[in-house]
Design goal:
The chain is α+β, with helices and mostly antiparallel strands and 89 residues long. It has two domains: 35 residues; 37 residues, no CATH class. Helix content is 16%, strand content 27%. It has a three-stranded antiparallel β-sheet, with no helix packed on it. It starts with a strand and ends in a 20-residue tail after the last helix.
């Protein structure tokens, strides 16, 4: 995996940033930053379900059922970066 950054959807995204654990294992994280300068809260999530695979693409039938039963989940967001059981930046 190669780490790279891009400006996309009004965010700076650093993809596949290495994070070395105490035992030497390297985890990879995607980091989403606001474009604007300022102080912003940090939200850290960890999910076991396919980093980088949007929920609606990876699990389309589950997405459709959820969106139908809970339309408030899809309101106010593109859900483009929402993975299963983690927040959408």
């Amino acid at each position: 995996m190669e780490q790279f950054s891009e400006i996309k959807d009004d965010m700076r995204i650093d993809w596949d940033c290495p994070i070395e654990m105490d035992d030497g294992l390297v985890l990879r994280a995607d980091i989403f930053y606001p474009i604007n300068k300022g102080k912003f809260p940090v939200i850290i999530t960890y999910g076991p379900y396919a980093k980088g695979l949007p929920f609606q693409q990876g699990y389309p039938s589950a997405w459709e059922r959820m969106a139908e039963k809970h339309p408030d989940v899809t309101a106010g967001s593109s859900n483009k970066y929402q993975n299963w059981e983690v927040v959408d930046p």
